[in-house]
Design goal:
mainly alpha, 82% helix
Length: 194
């Protein structure tokens, strides 16, 4: 059934990409790999590659935000009832400080990492919506426009390029995580001083 749904949405063109990215990021299991599909569209129809990348960013951010809100509403009561020294309370403090780094990596790098788990964690832990949306937007923008650029520029060689340079992409993602980590620590220290 999900494979059929994916095929129908792909046939709809850019509107299908928007809907598919919303479904994929909101937790609905869709068949296929979204990144490969975006690259394939960029290869076959470069004239709509940038539009599809933009719609994928919007759709993915929308879907992730829907999942974030559902987790925020459902899991908040559990976390609020956690005893101060409990494991749940310690995890909440850790995630409040550094958790967005864990959202950035799977949102940015096209390798099979369970982004939905971190989106749910961000919602349950009470991460600020603006911080969450900002991280997802930046990561998805870089990822999807980068994939569209690869598809337009390299054509069918894009997949080989991605496989060949996987470690470079991971290195860049880790460097970005380091910058985000430093920013979060700086922000927390600045907030603590006031």
């Amino acid at each position: 059934m999900f494979r059929h749904l994916t095929d129908v949405l792909v046939a709809w063109g850019p509107a299908g990409i928007l809907l598919l990215s919303i479904l994929d990021s909101s937790g609905v299991p869709v068949a296929g790999v979204f990144d490969a599909l975006l690259i394939l569209i960029a290869v076959k129809t470069p004239s709509v590659a940038w539009l599809c990348a933009g719609l994928a960013v919007i759709g993915s951010t929308t879907g992730s935000t829907m999942l974030f809100w559902a987790a925020h509403k459902g899991g908040r009561k559990y976390m609020d009832s956690a005893a101060p020294g409990s494991r749940a309370a310690r995890f909440r403090r850790w995630f409040k400080r550094y958790g967005m780094v864990t959202v950035l990596i799977p949102a940015l790098v096209p390798i099979p990492l369970p982004l939905k788990v971190f989106v749910i964690s961000a919602g349950v832990m009470g991460t600020a919506l603006s911080e969450f949306v900002g991280v997802v937007l930046v990561a998805r923008f870089v990822r999807y426009f980068g994939e569209a650029w690869l598809g337009v520029r390299l054509g069918m060689e894009s997949t080989a390029f991605l496989k060949e340079h996987l470690w470079h992409f991971l290195g860049v993602a880790l460097a970005l995580c380091g910058v985000l980590y430093c920013y979060i620590r700086w922000r927390n220290q600045a907030t603590a001083e006031f």
